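Lecture 7 notes: from sequence to structure.
We start with the chain below.
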Amino acid sequence: MTVHELEPAVPQPTRDRLVKAISAHGPITARQLAERFGLTSAAVRRHLAALEADGVIAEHRITVAQRGRGRPSKAFVLSPSAHEDLPGGYDELAVLAVAELARLGGDEAVAGLAERRIADWESRLAERVAELEAAGETVGTARRVELLSELLTERGYAATVRPLHVPLPAPGARPGGNPRTLVSAQLCHGRCPVLDIAADHPELCEAETRTISRIIGAPVQRLATLAQGAHACTTHIPLTEGRTP
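Predicted structure tokens for the same chain:
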């Protein structure tokens, strides 16, 4: 009997939780996963090694702004094959149907379908905003982004919001003064329910971007998409410009 045969089998629920977290929050390190689930780093690394060997996850190289001592931590994202294996809201027939629609009706027909597919995003979000405002909550732009992320996750996008604070140069400012800060966010989709179709028809991604812009009430910019080979769909959303505390 080998050492590997003596080791207990990887608990499936733990593996599923890790895959879900990597899908939604990747690139994410073993240490971050261990903290998230209250596991030891060694246990998480064993699970990750098995997932990587099975082709479920892949190592993602992160650009390090400042080089310190030691090697940078590994970060992980879902592999392209894992995106294909995860259940989605369509099958091969849907891919063929959209291709046939494009052949018969051209790009305009596909663009119309893309708009209709997400036509209820605005109305659903408006309902949630109305409920919160009726309860006395003030719903600003940042809160709208959070609500949108929750809605998209329910639709199978594994969405997360990642806030960004960017200091702005202030020529002529007094020494010691508080610098201006641009507050923005990145809305990330770790999954795409229509990935196979979007790879050939970017109209679906473009429709999503336009709808997000209307919901937020400000111009947004799609920085990357799963359909183009990125590890996540990333949309840059401006929030406010203020001063650091």
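Points to note: The mean pLDDT is 82. The chain has two domains: 9-85, 92-170+178-243.
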